Amino acid sequence: MKVAATDSAVNISPVPDTWQRRHLLGLEALSKEDILTLLHTAVELKAATGGCKDKLSVLSGKTVANMFFENSTRTRNSFSLAARRLGADTVEFSASSSSLSKGETLIDTAKTIEAMNVDAMVVRHSTPGSPHLLSQNVGCSILNAGDGPHEHPTQGMLDIMTIYEQRGSLEGLTVAMVGDITYSRTARSNIWGLKKLGAHVIVCGPSTLVSKAWEEFGVEVSYSLDDIIPRCDVLNLLRIQFERQYTRPFPSVREYAFLYGMNKKRMEQAKNDILIMAPGPINRGVEITPDVADGPHSVILHQVTNGIAVRMAALYLTTTANQREA
Amino acid sequence: MSSLLIRNGRIIDPSQSLDEITDLLIDQGKIIAIGPDATTATDVTQEIDATGLIVAPGLIDIHVQLREPGFEEDETIETGTAAAIAGGFTSIACLPNTLPVTDTQAQVQFIQQKARQADNCHVFAIACVSKNREGQELAEMGILTQAGAVAFSDAPKPLQKTDLFRRALEYSRMFDVPILDHPEMPELSQSGIMHSGAISMVLGLSGIHPDSEELATGRDLRLAETTGARLHLMDISTEGSVELIRRAKGRGVNVTSEVCIANLLLTDEVMRTFDSNYKVNPPLRSQAHIDACIAGLQDGTIDVITSGHAPRASEKKMTELDRAPFGMSQLEITLGLAITNLVTPGHLDFPTLIAKLATNPARALKLDKGTLAIGADADITLIDPEAAWEVDPTTFKSLSTNTPFSGMPLTGRASTVIVGGIVKHQR
After folding, report:
1. Residue A200 is a catalytic residue
2. What pLDDT, in 10s, does the model give residues A81-90?
């Protein structure tokens, strides 16, 4: 890693006045303009850091706290790297080592961390709405890194950014989210972001994991992967969230793979330029076979890199807006 | 005790189909005259001008959690009864979900003694159906009835075991006391936070499906029908439940039912705020369910409106949605919410509202209350139907301020509350 030659040589565009969000809680509430601001900022920061490798000092002097009340390695590390690439300090906090086990409430924990002069908190929690609760009780920026099955806005944005890099636009593309929609925050954030940028969104999976009610929100609902494959420009293959399910929604993993696993045979039915995505961690042999995951259509590792870019953008935009407001 | 004349009020008493502007006279804690006999009474020591006010039987709330003993951080019998009076209720019945639970004579007597000391409103104890409220063995219903328990319930927990429930209904017939059930099938609602629908889907919050309530309602009605016992269904919130009760009443099943005020006002849309003050059980559902409950009130399928008063200390509510308990602190605003949202838009007229808030609750629990008949206890609520006010939780008598209605403008509230001929509250 190298520090960018001279910081002054790297001109990052100022945060546009239209961006007034101190927090990033979800993509549902964002306007198309907000989403484009996030997207363009991520693209710019990725370029300015030589592909998310070099350091800038955009956030130097700032501190970002990672507050993960639920296990995570990739999102946590991605946020940490994003913060440090922009010159911020990071504080790590995890539920197991925290005072939560001593009976402290979530709000008290957050206020305590905030009192250490933290500028942004990256929050992952198993309960929907927890980042929203914190945003009403602390003064720093809150970035939702996944609240139960509700939203995971930076994951949605990194998926969108990956498609954008490959295609230059989302307008008119058909994007299918396949698998466990009910328990997937990735699916929800993707749905809102993709729709706002003009994509046609299909949710596809077992009827116990794909609610028909998505149709009320202009989303196509399908139970057959084979039916939709020929129409898709992008397939986003979601992991089955076994840990969230109360009763198992399908009879066996074998049956799931049979009905919804993306494999070589199904690839034959796909468009020539189809993009294969997966938010990870992937279960090889379940939702995706190794030859597809590692094949020429797969952009799974691009997604990981773009995660850093999107998180740099989110941290930069929200903390700047928060500073302006203060 | 002195005599008290309430002059020129609109006296509404559904128990005697009375609705006229006249006078009412109280003496020795009893109602002794209405109309010309009251007007011409001499020797009146106190007088209240009720011009422009409604004079109603003291309101009765049969679904109140008082939290004492065991959860005095949420509410005590003293603060809960003070809140009741401020809200216009002269009698309340309290659920047995205290610690210890209300499953012994001693606990019933504790409640009665604390209520006497508080000297606010009347308090009737609802005792547990099952020992320790565990849903396994019958509590001593005979002894508890003798001690003063007026009804039996494991609420807010549902009576899950069907055989125990059936036995309880059969056994209760001897004492002519009602069994109150909160109809819910836990296996269909477990971990649920809100109504199951498009909004819960979008928010990723686990849902409580109407099936959970309706399957239990269907079962409960069937058991009431075959046992002939008195069943009161609490917390009705779905279109399907209303229809099931309507049909059961049509067949002559001995059942009464209630709806909590919150379930008549708000839809699941409000959960988008993630505000745990909206977390109630039964959950806030869709407009179609609300409309069905209102239709149920109109045609008599639903007999009673309750506050569903469930006070919770702020530290319990100010937390993640799955950890936050269900409930709203409602006693002080139920009447205002009802007038504003049910009477003003024309869903119910005042006599019907008063029937749901006084006459019918008394009948459901066979309380010797809820009437302005000559000789009845002088429990009277004077309602100012035009009073414009705003919900301000900082003024609550209740220890808990868990309400999402803070700042809401309301029309109508209790202006004078009289218990046993004594003015307990006047604003």
Report:
1. no
2. 999 999 999 9
H or E element: which one contains B207? strand B207-208
Instruction: For residue range A37-79, list pLDDT tens digits in order.
Output: 999 999 999 999 999 999 999 999 999 999 999 888 899 999 9
pTM score, whole prediction: 0.94
Distances (CA, A) of B381 to A253, B51, B90, B409: 64, 14, 8, 21
Q: Which ipTM value was assigned to this complex?
A: 0.93
Residue A124 annotated among the catalytic residues of the structure: yes
Report the C-alpha gap between A99 and B108 in whole angstroms: 40
Q: Does A280 touch chain B (CB under 8 A)?
A: no
Kindly list the residues from chain A whose CB atom is less than 8 angstroms away from the CB atom of residue B206.
246
Q: Return the number of other C-beta atoms located less than 10 Å from residue B184's C-beta.
A: 26
Q: A165: distance to nearest CA of chain B, Å?
A: 28
B44: CATH: 2.30.40.10
DSSP A205: S
For residue B153, what are the domain limits?
59-365
For residue B323, is pLDDT > 60?
yes
Q: What is the mean pLDDT of chain B?
A: 97
Same domain for B265 and B232: yes
DSSP character for B97?
Answer: -
In a domain, B195, yes or no: yes
Distance CA A228, CA A222 (A): 8
Q: Are residues B196 and B232 in the same domain?
A: yes
Which amino acid is residue A269, in one-letter code?
Q
User: pLDDT (tens digit, 9 = 90+) per residue, B34-88?
Assistant: 999 898 888 899 999 999 999 999 999 999 999 999 999 999 999 999 999 999 9
Whether A220 and A200 have beta carbons less than 8 Å apart is answered as yes
Could you tell me if A184 and A177 are in contact, meaning their C-beta atoms sit under 8 angstroms apart?
yes
